[in-house]
Structures are given as structure tokens and as C-alpha cells.
């Protein structure tokens, strides 16, 4: 029975993998074909030869290098600024204003569970009032506050043994050194995981930037994809190519950080 | 731990900065939404209308259809998700050597944005696309049930990885001795699950059910890019209707009022799910 069980396990795993990964394979496939391939009645799962044509056509229509750079820059800025802000804020609430920390946490929990739908119209209004429409900062500043990451890191900091902080204080460490030793030393892996989540969240940011940015030079890749995928357009090969460029950095980042994600992903 | 004056000032500045951002981009938008819910738009101008926008929302059939659609899809989604989690989770517990790769592959869809899937599946599932070539049943593409089930299955595919991680993390902490004891007592697979495994994992199941329900109601990217609310408005979720009315048709008053009504429905749903969970706990 053991070889039979192994065979069954293998086939279950194989079918699950195919179901999970086939859409990405189809994405790569589509980026190498032209528009007519998608709607041809024959099932054709061979790679085509239109990848370069799609790339040239896409580059002619949109400044994709600049758009890619906008996506990378906005996601990186949000990741770095947000994580630093959250770490400093945790430190500030625990060591300086501990009395208000509990009240703040209660309010934050309430807002954390409110769906995005409840405030995205108001967010667009607020961002418009701040004159951030069609500005690069519209994709950075509103997304610096991430309450899930805040609670995740704070929960870890709360269980840190006080002896470590006392030892650091006895060694004459400044506040900056304590933050560095704790968050960039002891919690380095959790920090990496948090930064990965922040980057992914900002990279995939779609609805709010779609309604704030109209200038092509300020586009990020999600907005570009929304323009290409408009049902009135017929740029299917280019849309697949843009989707491929959108997903590839995330998959590569995931492969690199997958061990970290698996350890901390369900916390 | 003692801080210098400069350090205190710096961290106080950070505190004020963080809270300012929170107020500006979380509290003000919700306050604006609440305030706008008492206004209606007439000839491009906002006019105070009291509770007229709420009356308009509650009497609008499309609002209730979006709630019903979201409810139907969330039931399909939750049932599929919990079923898949239990089957796959228990299978992986018996085959720990496969867990790592299985979870790695299942987690990939979680990191990709919903709009990517929506656009990709739009082409795969087009009536002239790959799926149509395989299935050869054109009537399927007009079926409401098919589209709602498709919606639920794509959401399941997107979020299965993280739910599986949560399930396995919780399930791993169940002592093996309890399972062995139940085997000695002669319990069959269903009894083992019902009396030993389920009580241990029900908190995770409850959390997943709650989040999954909210996820369906607030989903915008799938109906926006995949089904466009069709066929026959059967996949218009509340989130998508809210987006259409507020940002596409510019009726902020209606959208704001519908948001407030929805939040009340959400609180009710939350209490309902919590009540079911507590009833299950008491009947154990």
C-alpha cells in the first residue's frame, strides 16, 4: 500500500500545484502572443513569438520604465517610512506615554476591522483637499499607517523580556541604540516579514491611486494595467505583459523570503 | 528606562506625527463619510437632506440586491473555504513532509493583487477564451450561479494560502495523545474530528469565517475587473456598488449613507456570527 499511497500523494500534490500555478503560466504564455491568440477556439499552450512586439508596443504607448520606477519608488518609500514610523511610535507609546497606549490600542483595533470601503471615498476627498491629486506623494503619505503591522510588531515587543531592556540601559545604550538592538537585532526576521507585507500591499495598491492619478507620468503599474485592460481597448498581449511585469517582482521576492513568510505568516 | 530631553522630544514628535496621520487618513475620512451621508447631490451641488439619503438607500432595490449577492457569495465562499481547509489541512497533518511545499505554493496567490486575477481570469473565462474551448457549453456564461460560484472560487484561490497557514499553525498544537486516546476509545474519523479536533480549531474557524464574510461584502476589484457586476447584477457586491455610486456616478451622499447602513449591517453580522460561535461552544 505504501507505494500506492505515495503515488496518490504525488498526484494530489501535482493537481494542486497545477491548479495554483496554471494562471501564472497562462500569464507568461499570454505575454508572448498577440491579441488573436486569446480568443482563438483552439487550445494552444505553446509559447508564441510576440513578446518583443508586445514590449515595443507597450513602450510606445506608455513610458513603462518610468511607470515601473514609480511603482518601485512608491512601494519602497512606503515600506521604509512606514516601518520606521511604526517602530518609533511603538517605542514612544511604551516608554514615554504608556498611559495613553491602551486607549490608542482600543481605537486602533476598532479602525483596523473597519473595511476599506468605509473610508475610501472620504480618503479620496481628504487627499484632494491636501492638494495631493496627481502627485507622487499621494501614493506614499496616506499609506504610511498600517495598523496590522503596528499590532504585529507591538505584540512581539510586549513579550520581550524586560531583562534585555534593563541590560541595555545598564550598558548605557541610548534610545536609538535600544530601538536598533531590539528591532534590527532581536526582531530582524519579523521586521523583514513586516517590510515584505508592506511592500506587497503598496505595490498592489489599486483602487485609491486609480481615482487620484490621471497623469501618465505619475502612473504606477496597477493604474497602467487598469488603462490597458479597459474593455473598450484591445491591447491583450500588452495587458498580459504588463500583468507579468507586475507579478514577477512579487513572486521573486516571495521565493527569496518564503522561509520567513512561512514562519511568521500566520502570527 | 530614562530618556534624555532630546530623546523625549523626538519620540513625542513621532507620536504626534503618527497620530496626525491617523486622524487625517482614518478618522477624517470616516467623519467626512458620516457628514456627507446627510447631503444629497442636486444639479452638481450638495444640499442638506437630513435622513433622505438613508431613506433613498433603504428603498433602493439595487442596494438590497448587493447585500443579498454578497450574502450568497459569502456563504458559498465560506463553505468552500472551511471545507477545503479541513480536508487539505487534515491531509497535510498526516503528511508533514509535504506541508512545506504545499503551503509555499498555496501562499503565492495571496501576495498578488486581486485586480491581477480579475483581469487574468476575465480572459481565461471569456465566452471565446480557453475555458469556453474546454467546456463547450455557451449557456454556462449566462448562468448567475456559475458567476457567483466563480467569484467565490477565485476569492478562495486568492486567500487559501494564508488561511491554511493559520489552520496548520493552530492544528499543530493539538496534542497527539488526544487523537491516540480517541482511537483507543474506538472513535471513527468523524467522531475524532467532531469531539477532539474541532473544539481545538474552532477559534481559528470563527476568525476565518468573520474575515471571509467581510472580505466578500467589501470586494471591489473582482466585480470591477472580472464580472462588471453581471450577469443581471448578480455579482454586484456592496463594495462595488459603493464604489460605483460614490466615485463613478459622483453621488457621495448616497454612497456615504449606504456605507453607514452597511456598517450597521456588518455589526449585526458580526454579532450573528459571534452568537453562532458561542452557541456551538455551549452545545459542546
Please state the structural category of chain A: mainly alpha
Estimate percent helicity of chain B.
over 70%
What is the count of helical runs of chain B? 12
Q: Which stretches of chain A are low in confidence, meaning pLDDT under 50 for 5 or more residues running?
A: none
Count of DSSP strands of chain B = 2
Task: Give the overall silhouette of chain A.
Answer: globular
Strand arrangement within the widest β-sheet of chain B reads: 1-2
Please render the helix and strand layout as text.
The complex is a heterodimer of chains A (267) and B (284).
Chain A: H1 2-31, H2 35-38, H3 51-61, H4 64-95, H5 98-112, H6 120-129, H7 147-158, H8 162-170, H9 175-186, H10 188-203, H11 207-212, H12 221-228, H13 236-264
Chain B: H1 5-36, E1 39-42, E2 45-48, H2 52-59, H3 61-94, H4 96-111, H5 114-124, H6 130-135, H7 144-171, H8 176-184, H9 189-217, H10 221-227, H11 238-248, H12 252-282
Antiparallel strand pairs in B: 1-2
Helix pairs in contact in B: 1-12, 2-12, 3-7, 3-9, 4-7, 5-10, 7-9, 8-9, 9-12, 11-12
Could you please describe the fold and organization of this structure?
With 267 residues, chain A is mostly helical. Chain A is built from 13 helices and no strands. Chain B is mainly alpha-helical and 284 residues long. In chain B, 78% of the residues lie in helices and 3% in strands. Chain B is built from 12 helices and 2 strands. At the A-B interface, helix 1, helix 4, helix 5, helix 6 and helix 9 of A face helix 1, helix 4, helix 5, helix 6 and helix 7 of B.
Task: Describe what is shown at a glance.
The complex is a heterodimer of chains A (267) and B (284). With 267 residues, chain A is mainly alpha-helical.
Amino acid at each position: 500500500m505504501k507505494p500506492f499511497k505515495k503515488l496518490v500523494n504525488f498526484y494530489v500534490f501535482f493537481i494542486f500545484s497545477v491548479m495554483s500555478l496554471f494562471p501564472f503560466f497562462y500569464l507568461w504564455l499570454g505575454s508572448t502572443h498577440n491579441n488573436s491568440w486569446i480568443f482563438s477556439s483552439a487550445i494552444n499552450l505553446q509559447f508564441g513569438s510576440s513578446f518583443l512586439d508586445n514590449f515595443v508596443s507597450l513602450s510606445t504607448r506608455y513610458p513603462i520604465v518610468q511607470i515601473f520606477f514609480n511603482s518601485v519608488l512608491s512601494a519602497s518609500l512606503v515600506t521604509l517610512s512606514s516601518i520606521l514610523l511604526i517602530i518609533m511610535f511603538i517605542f514612544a507609546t511604551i516608554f514615554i506615554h504608556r498611559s495613553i497606549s491602551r486607549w490608542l490600542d482600543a481605537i486602533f483595533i476598532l479602525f483596523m476591522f473597519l473595511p476599506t470601503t468605509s473610508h475610501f471615498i472620504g480618503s479620496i476627498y481628504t487627499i484632494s483637499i491636501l492638494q495631493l491629486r496627481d502627485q507622487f506623494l499621494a501614493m506614499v503619505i496616506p499609506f504610511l499607517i498600517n495598523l496590522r503591522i503596528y499590532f504585529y510588531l507591538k505584540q512581539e515587543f510586549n513579550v520581550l523580556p524586560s531583562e534585555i531592556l534593563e541590560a541595555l540601559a545598564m550598558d548605557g545604550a541610548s534610545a536609538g541604540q535600544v530601538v536598533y538592538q531590539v528591532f534590527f537585532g532581536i526582531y530582524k526576521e519579523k521586521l523583514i516579514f513586516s517590510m515584505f507585507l508592506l511592500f506587497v500591499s503598496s505595490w498592489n495598491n489599486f483602487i485609491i491611486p486609480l481615482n487620484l492619478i490621471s497623469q501618465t507620468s505619475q502612473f504606477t503599474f496597477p493604474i497602467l494595467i487598469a488603462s490597458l485592460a479597459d474593455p473598450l481597448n484591445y491591447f491583450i498581449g500588452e495587458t498580459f505583459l504588463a500583468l507579468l511585469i507586475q507579478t514577477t517582482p512579487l513572486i521573486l521576492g516571495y521565493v527569496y523570503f518564503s522561509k520567513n513568510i512561512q514562519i511568521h505568516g500566520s502570527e | 528606562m530614562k530618556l534624555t530631553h532630546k530623546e523625549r522630544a523626538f519620540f513625542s514628535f513621532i507620536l504626534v506625527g503618527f497620530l496626525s496621520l491617523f486622524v487625517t487618513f482614518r478618522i477624517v475620512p470616516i467623519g467626512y463619510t458620516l457628514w456627507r451621508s446627510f447631503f444629497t447631490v442636486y444639479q452638481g451641488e450638495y444640499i442638506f437632506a437630513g435622513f433622505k439619503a438613508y431613506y433613498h438607500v433603504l428603498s433602493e432595490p439595487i442596494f438590497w440586491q448587493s447585500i443579498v449577492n454578497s450574502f450568497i457569495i459569502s456563504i458559498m465562499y465560506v463553505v468552500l473555504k472551511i471545507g477545503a481547509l479541513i480536508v487539505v489541512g487534515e491531509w497535510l497533518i498526516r503528511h508533514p513532509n509535504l506541508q512545506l511545499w504545499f503551503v509555499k505554493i498555496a501562499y503565492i496567490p495571496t501576495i498578488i493583487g486581486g485586480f491581477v486575477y480579475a483581469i487574468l481570469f476575465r480572459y481565461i473565462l471569456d465566452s471565446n477564451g480557453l475555458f469556453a474551448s474546454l467546456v463547450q457549453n455557451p449557456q454556462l456564461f449566462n448562468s448567475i450561479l456559475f458567476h457567483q460560484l466563480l467569484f467565490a472560487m477565485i476569492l478562495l484561490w486568492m486567500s487559501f494560502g494564508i488561511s491554511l497557514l493559520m489552520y496548520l499553525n493552530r492544528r499543530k498544537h493539538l496534542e497527539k495523545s488526544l487523537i491516540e486516546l480517541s482511537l483507543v476509545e474506538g472513535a471513527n474519523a468523524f467522531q475524532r474530528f467532531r469531539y477532539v479536533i474541532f473544539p481545538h480549531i474552532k477559534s481559528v474557524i470563527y476568525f476565518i469565517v468573520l474575515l471571509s464574510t467581510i472580505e466578500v461584502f467589501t470586494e471591489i476589484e473582482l466585480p470591477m475587473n472580472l464580472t462588471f457586476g453581471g450577469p443581471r447584477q448578480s455579482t454586484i457586491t456592496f463594495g462595488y456598488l459603493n464604489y460605483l455610486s460614490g466615485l463613478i456616478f459622483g453621488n457621495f451622499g448616497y454612497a456615504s449613507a449606504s456605507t453607514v447602513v452597511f456598517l450597521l449591517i456588518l455589526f449585526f453580522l458580526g454579532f450573528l456570527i459571534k452568537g453562532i460561535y458561542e452557541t456551538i461552544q455551549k452545545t459542546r
